[in-house]
Amino acid sequence: MEIILALSGCFILFFVIYVAVRTGINDSKNLNIIRNELSMLKSELELLRKQLENNEEEQHLWQDGKP
């Protein structure tokens, strides 16, 4: 009887550890996807900021009468 109880306890412990590891792996994959998307958004925002600066400089040149 004790052997069955010990084996079932080991099985439950193994199952809990397995689920925790699988959850951690899935969370890690999701975090990497989110990190990549944020990096892409950061790059796009930086590009937009540079384009805005260039447009503002061109507008100042046109306002000053220098085409």
SSE succession: H
Q: What would the average pLDDT be, to the nearest integer?
A: 90
**What separation lies between the terminal Cα atoms?**
93 Å
Number of helices: 1
Secondary-structure-derived class? mainly alpha
Oligomer: single chain
Cα-atom radius of gyration: 29 Å
Question: Strand percentage, roughly?
Answer: under 5%
Entry keywords:
67 residues
Describe it for me?
The structure is a single chain. With 67 residues, the protein is mainly alpha-helical. Helix content is 93%, strand content 0%. The protein is built from one helix and no strands.
Offer a concise description of the structure.
With 67 residues, the chain is an all-alpha fold. It contains 1 helix and no strands.
Could you give the topology of this structure?
Elements: H1 2-63
